[in-house]
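Quick one, probably user error.
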């Protein structure tokens, strides 16, 4: 290739350029974090189009998250300088949904099948399991579901499972439960997440003509985050990449074995090692310069991952030589509440120094850690978003509202109907529901249809009859409105007329209930962004799996380390580096090195998300429900190179005197005196009287209406009631 060339190739280094321009035949790019793998893949996509090697619809590109797909689409259209539509670019799942809608009939589904979320999956499985009469304590449905998913991830249909593969749980009955569950899904015209891939692979296997159509359509296949493909994804790729003429397919995969973090979902590093065998004659390119992080961050990350034994081994050099960068700050706090507060304070300081909120991220080991940061950021008035469906779409009120809309649109959707028929309470408890289920089975109708019939025939007696009648009337009224006034107004109507919103308005826990009503308002906004309810429902089914819709506004991002893969932020906070949290308790309990090495890969992923600065935090004591528990700093902290870090201890003393940080050269075991373990310190009383007028940076002026330790409830003139921390307001004289 020539050193000069089209604009879009400028700025790539030699190896990157080679990876873009080697378009024919199989290609594996194996390289560490931040070496430009994704950038190469994106440029390659554009290159194929600009060189007119293929039409847009002849390229299949697989990303790991919807967010990554969106970013890739944007980058491609920037390179091409025009909007691009209708690309086969997305996650494995979103690509499979698109295919499956076309071929649903081949698998016994209708084109408009619904995709169940985790909640509904379990609910359905519980019903299916009833005849087996298994003790739910010994055989929790969630574990049975996990087993079924593992089978699905290996492309195993119920018939293909041998008795020997079904010995771990429930005396070899899981196979049969799996078969019953699949049958029930089909009756409901639904599939779960794992089915999206399973059905497509099944169709490819049973209908070669369908597979052939795709094989000849996709002239180029591009796969990002290849190290995390599981067996069925790999199979799907291999089927699509097979060529009739015996020529090697033009498949390009990029990956990093050090970032393989999904083995618990069946991902298999071995897929990387197998690449050369499965695609003979493959070109292998290594990229060695990291362009993302400062040399110091890179050095720290490299040292941590060097503790793993199970590695392919790669060279990783700093590509950024302009700066050395700041040392990584390792911050010890007395307890987990302080941790959240200090992260908030740091974010605020950085923001005051001119760093956008959107340039900062808090990356957690486990979803449950999010809550304390949400609280702390909310109280300080720092805008944030939770990426990864941990928050919004998983909240009960959101699921309820969606179930209401599903019941409106799909009178056959029994799961949705069950969720809401007694919400708010309509005197229709479990007994009534079981009876209705039985009647529905006998009549061969859905629950909703059956109840309607019973009401029409006057079979429902007592005062519940009127309540249920109103409920059913509300459903059909909303159905009418959908076609007349659209899905947004219909949603609002059903939530109002069913009494659902009133239920929250009358809720005694007003602050929480207000939050729920806010969420529902937000939901209506989200629904409004889609042309139809169907489009919206499909969208959530997809985002629920991994990542949430991106918001253009300036917000701090909160997410798990798993969800952060492939992303980058100038500033990264890594809290909870404690034994039992990170590495997780489960990985420690398993005892083996494998689980621990996967945790270490997660630490590597976390640190390598940072471009300019990274903060690692650990607390000496952590709240677990109502109790406080001691914790030890993570072993990964000890694995950091001392010359790339600086340690801070936040002492209570320092907090009282108002200065957050108390520098100490190496307080390796800086734990507070044991007397305070198990007890919560008294919060410093703010000298803010009830009824005082205060000013908050973000919310403006308001009146203090309640006090609880250092938490204030303030009625703000502009934004209404908020709970905030006393430390972040000033009294207006
Ligand atoms: P990860 O392993 O985390 O997914 P990656 O290998 O996919 O990382 P990219 O996200 O593609 O890396 O690139 C990391 C950063 O480096 C991006 O900001 C990208 O724009 C930048 N970058 C990549 N290549 C170059 C280059 N040749 N010159 C300057 N910057 C580059
Ligand atoms: Mg990448």
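Nope, works fine. Designed sequence:
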């Amino acid at each position: 290739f020539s050193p000069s060339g089209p604009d879009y190739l400028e700025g790539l280094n030699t190896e990157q350029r080679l990876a873009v321009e080697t378009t024919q035949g199989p290609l594996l790019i194996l390289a560490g974090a931040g070496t430009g793998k994704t950038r190469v893949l994106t440029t390659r996509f554009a290159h194929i189009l600009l060189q007119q090697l293929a039409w847009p619809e002849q390229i299949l590109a697989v990303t790991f998250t919807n967010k990554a797909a969106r970013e890739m689409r944007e980058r491609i259209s920037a390179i091409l300088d025009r909007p691009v539509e209708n690309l086969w670019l997305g996650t494995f799942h979103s690509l499979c949904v698109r295919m499956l809608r076309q071929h649903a009939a081949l698998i016994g589904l209708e084109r408009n099948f619904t995709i169940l979320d985790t909640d509904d999956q379990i609910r359905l499985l519980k019903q299916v399991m009833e005849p087996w009469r298994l003790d739910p304590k010994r055989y929790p449905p969630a574990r049975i579901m996990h087993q079924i998913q593992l089978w699905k991830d290996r492309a195993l249909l119920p018939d293909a499972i041998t008795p020997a593969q079904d010995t771990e749980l429930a005396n070899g009955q899981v196979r049969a439960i799996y078969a019953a569950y699949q049958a029930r899904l089909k009756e409901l015209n639904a599939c779960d997440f794992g089915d999206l891939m399973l059905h497509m692979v099944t169709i490819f296997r049973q209908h070669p003509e369908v597979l052939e159509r795709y094989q000849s359509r996709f002239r180029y296949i591009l796969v990002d985050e290849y190290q995390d493909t599981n067996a069925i994804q790999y199979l799907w790729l291999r089927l699509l990449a097979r060529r009739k003429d015996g020529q090697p397919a033009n498949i390009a995969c990029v990956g990093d074995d050090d970032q393989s973090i999904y083995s618990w979902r069946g991902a298999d590093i071995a897929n990387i090692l197998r690449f050369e065998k499965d695609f003979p004659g493959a070109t292998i390119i290594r990229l060695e310069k990291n362009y993302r992080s400062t040399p110091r961050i890179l050095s720290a990350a490299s040292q941590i991952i060097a503790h793993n034994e199970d590695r392919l081994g790669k060279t990783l050099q700093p590509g950024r030589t302009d700066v050395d960068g700041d040392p990584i700050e390792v911050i010890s706090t007395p307890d987990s509440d302080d941790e959240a507060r200090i992260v908030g304070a740091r974010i605020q300081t950085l923001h005051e120094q001119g760093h956008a909120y959107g340039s900062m991220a808090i990356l957690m080991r486990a979803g449950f850690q999010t809550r304390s940061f949400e609280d702390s950021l909310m109280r300080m008035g720092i805008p944030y978003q939770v990426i990864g469906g941990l928050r919004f779409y998983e909240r009960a009120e959101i699921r309820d509202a969606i179930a209401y809309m599903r019941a409106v649109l799909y009178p056959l959707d029994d799961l949705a109907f069950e969720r809401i028929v007694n919400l708010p309470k309509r005197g229709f408890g479990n007994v009534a529901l079981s009876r209705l289920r039985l009647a529905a089975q006998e009549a061969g109708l859905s629950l909703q249809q059956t109840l309607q019939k019973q009401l029409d025939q006057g079979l429902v007696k007592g005062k519940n009859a009127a309540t249920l009648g109103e409920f059913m009337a509300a459903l059909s009224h909303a159905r009418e409105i959908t076609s007349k006034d659209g899905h947004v107004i219909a949603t609002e109507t059903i939530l109002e007329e069913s009494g659902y919103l009133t239920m929250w308005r009358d809720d005694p826990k007003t602050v929480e209930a207000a939050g729920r009503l806010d969420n529902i308002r937000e939901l209506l906004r989200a629904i409004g962004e889609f042309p139809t309810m169907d489009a919206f429902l499909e969208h959530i089914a997809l985002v629920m799996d991994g990542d949430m819709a991106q918001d253009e506004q300036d917000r701090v991002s909160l997410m798990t380390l798993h969800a952060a893969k492939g992303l980058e932020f100038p500033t990264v906070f890594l809290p909870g580096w404690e034994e039992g949290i990170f590495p997780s308790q489960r990985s420690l309990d398993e005892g083996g090195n494998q689980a621990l090495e996967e945790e270490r890969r997660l630490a590597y992923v976390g640190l390598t998300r940072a471009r300019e600065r990274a903060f690692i935090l650990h607390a000496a004591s952590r709240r677990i429900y109502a109790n406080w528990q001691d914790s030890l700093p993570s072993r990964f902290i000890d694995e950091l190179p001392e010359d790339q870090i600086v340690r801070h201890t936040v002492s209570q003393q320092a907090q009282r005197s108002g200065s957050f940080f108390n520098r100490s050269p190496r307080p390796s075991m800086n734990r507070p005196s044991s007397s305070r373990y198990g007890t919560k310190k008294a919060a410093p009383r703010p000298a803010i009287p009830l009824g005082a007028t205060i000013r908050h940076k973000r919310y403006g002026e308001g009146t203090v209406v309640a006090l609880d330790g250092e938490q204030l409830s303030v009625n703000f003139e502009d934004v209404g009631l908020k709970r905030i921390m006393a430390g972040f307001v000033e009294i207006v004289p």
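The pocket of magnesium ion (ligand 2) is lined by residues 37-38, 224, 566 (CB under 6 Å).
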